[in-house]
Amino acid sequence: MKFAHLIADGKPAIVLVDADMRHYWPLADLVPGFSGDMIQLVQDFGKFRSSLAPRGTGRPLAGARLLAPIDRPRRNIFCVGKNYFEHAAEFSKSGFDSSAKEGEHAPEAPVVFTKAYNTVIGPGAAIPSHDGVTSQLDYEAELAVVIGKPGRNIPRERALEHVFGYTIVNDFTARDLQKLHRQWFLGKSLDGFCPMGPALVTADELDAANLDIRCWVNGELRQNANTRQLIFDIPTLIATISAGITLEPGDVIATGTPAGVGIGFNPPRFVKRGDVIRIEVQGIGVLENAVD
Hints:
The protein is an alpha+beta fold. Helices cover 15% and strands 31% of the residues. It has six helices and 18 strands. Strands 1, 2, 3, 4, 5, 6, 7, 8, 10, 11, 13 and 16 form a twelve-stranded mixed beta sheet that branches. A four-stranded antiparallel beta sheet has the order 15-14-17-18, with no helix packed on it. It has a two-stranded antiparallel sheet with strand order 9-12. The longest helix is centred in the first third of the chain and has 11 residues, at 38-48. It starts with a strand and ends with a strand. 45% of the residues are buried.
């Protein structure tokens, strides 16, 4: 199933959408009394899953304004850095990586950091350029995992049982702040630095270990990879993060970006006001945002 969060009739609503995102059905119509957000859907999914079948032709999605599927996360977003070999190499060579050991080409364990929850914006929303704060803006196309079943110390072989579904995030970054402060939180957490969407797709619909992921800047293809190339796969990430930390329904884990980001070029190709970043992940859809 594929779910979205949008403004319909002037009000925010969680909706079921068809595969090509042309029509939608408000959950409030399918599950009488439902008035929660996407996290509430994730938490209660098992209770009314059998009721979530399209009825009729649905309403046209054209004209509705999409919001981020989880626009108000309860906690910071868990992020993973340097999780594709070629990106780890380009980052190491860029001069912006203060986290690598000398001579390191790939991390020996997942590099985990967080991105503030206030960074989330929806499809089509403008990414603030934050003039005067940063001058080195960069994009990162990523598959994101949404946790459905809570757990701590989750074994790798049981990890996928805890996944509700998947969405797309753009782990937008101020590279100068990331380099200056060494730890990445500030460079990753400026307001508006986590576009998310366009939909949340349940885990049974996708083979997350084999999804094409692409990113264009102003129509130029910059990133083109497949999640088969992850250094640390999704079960490993869940097992690592949950070791001593309870994962909760609605938690978001961004799994890392492939090669082709702005700092991977020589000289770096940072984005600027007016540039449009378009990200596509197979089976989920397209996330597009412009820098303002």
